[in-house]
């Protein structure tokens, strides 16, 4: 099927005043629009590109969900397909999103970037955009937290003949030049892209970071199913052992590919993938790596086994009949730490940077950000009246930035908007009396 957007109705969306302006037309912004429409609150969704464009333009060809389909629970649009425990592929995800867009029918202005948001002395927000100026009583920022790709300065010193690709730009092994590929970063994207290349029989060098991993299936069920029963996905950030520090955690690597399986970097290494520690520097044609490959692999396996042990404890406590589990034992271990790699001799013709993104909220003029540019908030409600955030990782729970939890967050924010508007209306009636 085509990966283009469905036709979006844009009824008279033009610069002017709205009760609420939602910045961002991804699943978070559309979820907010869904609840605003149900509450009868006039609003406009302003989208820099096109609605849900990230899923269409920033995912590789073989991309699929890493969480089972039953966790796709956008408001009014739960997964209803034939394979709730499967993992939708890219075209299926887009079809699911197209159905959601059609249901919401959002009042959206696409291809319109927001340049500045600032609250005036009168409490009204001024929103400057590439399509004109808006004003609003309240603003919901739903542009996500992954804006600026992280690429180290050493990238500037790579030879011009070495193609450099950021993870959001990667499409397929066939789209890369012939030769070896260096993948930098082993988080969710890095590990899956390395797997994609490895399965295509490309020579892969992988700079392994500190990302944890988890099992796909354990004791007869998907690990996600077990964790859901254990109420992990309902745990609010303030009750997580790491508190707000969990927002900085790298996602566990696992895959839903071919029905779902573990990603075991040790197995890949036994099949020919070259593993190194964290990439630190490029000097005189030599790539320099930290001597932390062994520690990073061991730490990832420790997390894997700890998650499984927590499932064991839950099964025992509740007397659940389940197949026996076993502890993961390494299938390969590096003989030593290798800290240098000659770029030319390795035959590396492409480097794929998979080391994440930085948030960029520089266009929001509001005193709510910490030193790292992250907004202070409680469940998306900031200290500045009328300014909200939704769709950020661990905004409230693990699912806040995913299909599984964004509906709950969007409803909570819209409920607060309704409450604030109701209170303001009551005050105005009291003053008039």
UniProtKB/TrEMBL annotation:
Keywords: Oxidoreductase
Domain of life of the organism encoding this protein: Bacteria
InterPro entries in the cross-refs: Auxin_biosynth/cation_transpt, CHP04046_FMN-dependent, FAD/NAD-bd_sf
SUPFAM superfamilies xrefs: FAD/NAD(P)-binding domain
NCBIfam families: MSMEG_0569_nitr (TIGR04046)
Protein name, entry field: MSMEG_0569 family flavin-dependent oxidoreductase
Natural source organism: Paraburkholderia dipogonis
Taxonomic lineage of the native organism: Bacteria, Pseudomonadati, Pseudomonadota, Betaproteobacteria, Burkholderiales
